[in-house]
């Protein structure tokens, strides 16, 4: 399989690159602001460049993992968020429609906003923030332009080794190493998803020719507080450094919806119950992935 990974320098994209290498798939990644000798530069908003790349490389599958993750940044710069997320998805989907292959778009649990019940793939999206609204639009664009050749992978709280150590677990480890007290929400939930497993599942679904939307999240549901405590425990730091408080008392804007839970029935029926490992096993995997040199950088940062 020939894979084009847009956002090859990011958390999800870099694990897609590794997963392709592990499976012996041909792959090409792209970078945007973080130059990478193994990849090619690309701004997904540049339609001509996107078309040229896809026409030249002729991928069987294009993975659209280039996007924003920070909701606060998206609220502050809504036009940029829309350009990267929606215009970018549109340019890529148009190029794939023209030159063949299929498209895998990474989206998130936040498309459902705050919801009291577990959300299935076909449930209506009710986004509340700027980033989630753009993600819903990007999903719609991809469904419209590639009705039979798209896969939307919705995930949550992705964590794993990333060169810049920006994922949520590495940020926690950095603070714990500095013995900073960490105040987290004890009533805001997510489904931590280990990045190497997410990447492998996305590749496998693409190989199987799966289309439509699939929720790809880990088997456990955590609060920010319990995830932080588990991270401290597994990395051998003092769990008392973590304090849990009601989300409404935190000064983080915009607040993430407190209650989100993606249904995993479809994922289980496609790839079995263990396609994504537990949060504890993922954190142990991350601990093993962090080579001594990386840990030194984490401690020093
Ligand atoms: N992380 C999560 O928990 C999570 C959960 C669900 C869904 N998602 C979605 O999955 C996607 C990837 O997330 P991630 O965590 O891997 O993000 P990330 O680590 O921040 O990586 C983002 C990637 O996008 C690239 N990029 C940014 N702006 C670009 C542009 N204008 N043109 C081309 N490439 C651009 C970045 O390139 P440079 O680094 O070279 O600048 C980087 O490779 C995002 O759409 C995110 O919303 C993430």
Task: List descriptors.
RmlD-like-bd, two-stranded parallel sheet, NAD(P)-bd_dom_sf, binds NADP nicotinamide-adenine-dinucleotide phosphate, Rossmann fold, 301 residues, 43% helix, 11 helices
Explain how this protein is built.
The structure is a single chain. The chain has about 300 residues and is of the alpha/beta class. It has one domain: NAD(P)-binding Rossmann-like Domain (Rossmann fold). It is globular, with a radius of gyration of 18 Å. The N and C termini lie far apart (about 40 Å). The site of NADP nicotinamide-adenine-dinucleotide phosphate has 27 residues, from helix 1 and strand 5. NADP nicotinamide-adenine-dinucleotide phosphate binds next to helix 1 and strand 5. Belongs to the dTDP-4-dehydrorhamnose reductase family. GO terms for molecular function: dTDP-4-dehydrorhamnose reductase activity.
**Total of helices:** 11
CATH topology: Rossmann fold
Provide the succession of SSEs: EHEEHEHHEHEEHEEEHEEHEHHH
Work out the number of β strands: 13
Give a topology summary.
Elements lengths: L1 E5 L4 H13 L2 E6 L8 E2 L5 H11 L3 E4 L6 H6 L1 H22 L2 E7 L21 H16 L4 E6 L2 E2 L8 H10 L4 E4 L3 E2 L2 E2 H13 L4 E4 L6 E2 H12 L6 E4 L19 H7 L7 H11 L2 H9 L1
Parallel strand pairs: 1-2, 1-4, 2-3, 4-5, 5-6, 6-11, 7-10, 8-13
Antiparallel strand pairs: 9-12
Helix pairs in contact: 1-7, 2-4, 4-5, 6-8, 8-10
The structure holds NADP nicotinamide-adenine-dinucleotide phosphate.
The site of NADP nicotinamide-adenine-dinucleotide phosphate (NAP) has 27 residues, from helix 1 and strand 5.
């Amino acid at each position: 399989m020939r894979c084009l990974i847009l956002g090859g320098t990011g958390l999800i994209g870099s694990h897609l690159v590794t997963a392709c290498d592990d499976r012996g798939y041909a792959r090409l990644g792209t970078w945007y602001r973080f130059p990478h000798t193994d990849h090619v530069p690309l701004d997904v908003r540049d339609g001509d460049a996107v078309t040229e790349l896809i026409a030249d490389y002729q991928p069987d599958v294009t993975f659209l993992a280039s996007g924003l993750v920070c909701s606060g940044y998206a609220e502050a710069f809504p036009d940029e968020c829309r350009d990267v997320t929606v215009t970018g998805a549109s340019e890529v989907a148009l190029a794939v429609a023209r030159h063949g292959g299929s498209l895998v778009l990474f989206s998130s649990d936040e498309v459902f906003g705050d919801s009291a019940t577990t959300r299935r793939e076909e449930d209506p999206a009710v986004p509340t923030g700027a980033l989630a609204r753009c993600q819903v639009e990007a999903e719609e664009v991809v469904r419209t332009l590639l009705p039979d050749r798209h896969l939307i992978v919705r995930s949550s709280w992705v964590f794993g080794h990333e060169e810049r150590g920006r994922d949520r677990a590495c940020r926690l480890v950095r603070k714990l190493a500095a013995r900073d007290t960490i105040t987290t929400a004890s009533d805001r939930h997510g489904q931590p998803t280990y990045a190497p497993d997410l990447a492998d599942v996305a590749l496998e679904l693409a190989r199987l020719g799966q289309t439509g939307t699939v929720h790809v999240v880990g088997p456990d549901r955590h609060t920010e507080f319990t995830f932080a405590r588990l991270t401290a425990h597994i990395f051998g730091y003092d769990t008392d450094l973590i304090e849990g408080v009601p989300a409404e008392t935190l000064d983080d804007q915009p607040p993430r919806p407190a209650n989100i839970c993606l249904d995993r029935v479809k994922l289980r029926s496609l790839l079995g119950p263990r396609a994504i490992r537990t949060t504890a096993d993922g954190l142990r995997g991350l601990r093993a992935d962090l080579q001594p040199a990386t840990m030194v950088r984490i401690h020093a940062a």
